[in-house]
């Protein structure tokens, strides 16, 4: 094995480096995929809190993010990362009021076929 690697390094250095870089990228993406799966498999239907974004709530509760944004009166084409607390402050309402609106919207959307999201 050592002779093979040494031979590749001596005769095909650029190709060997390209292969190593491609292998490293593949390993990093595989690790990212496993971490992503592990995180979201344990974060289903978590209680909605004011630090969460609308997209996070939609993903956790498996509803369509665009439908949730529409039901809350937000632009469904914009992918913003504002938290529920920040949205409430911008609307001039207490965060608890907006949290209740989000909970009701999620419950409504989970009952309708067009509101149910795709599972990752």
Description:
The protein is mainly alpha-helical and 120 residues long. 66% of the residues lie in helices and 0% in strands. The protein is built from six helices and no strands. Helix 1 crosses helix 2 and helix 5 packs across helix 6.
Shape descriptor reads: elongated
Kindly state the percentage of residues in helix. 55-70%
- How many strands, which pairing sense, and closed or not: the largest β-sheet? none
> Radius of gyration from the CA trace?
23 Å
Question: How far apart are the termini?
Answer: 40 Å
pLDDT averaged over residues? 89
| Helix-strand string | HHHHHH
Count the DSSP helices: 6
What percentage of the residues does DSSP assign to strands (E)?
under 5%
Structural class: mainly alpha
- Total count of strands: 0
What ranges have pLDDT less than 50 throughout 5 or more consecutive residues? none
Key phrases:
120 residues, 66% helix, 6 helices, single chain, 0% strand, elongated, mainly alpha
What is this structure, in a nutshell?
This protein has 6 helices and no strands. The protein is an all-alpha fold.
């Amino acid at each position: 094995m050592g002779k093979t690697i040494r031979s590749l390094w001596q005769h095909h250095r650029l190709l060997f480096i390209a292969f190593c870089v491609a292998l490293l990228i593949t390993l990093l993406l595989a690790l990212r995929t496993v971490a992503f799966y592990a995180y979201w498999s344990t974060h289903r239907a978590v209680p909605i809190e004011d630090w969460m974004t609308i997209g996070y709530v939609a993903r956790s509760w498996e509803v369509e993010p665009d439908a949730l944004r529409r039901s809350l009166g937000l632009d469904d084409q914009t992918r913003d990362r504002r938290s529920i607390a920040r949205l409430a402050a911008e609307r001039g309402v207490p965060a608890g009021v907006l949290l209740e609106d989000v909970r009701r919207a999620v419950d409504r959307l989970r009952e309708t076929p067009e509101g149910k999201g795709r599972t990752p």
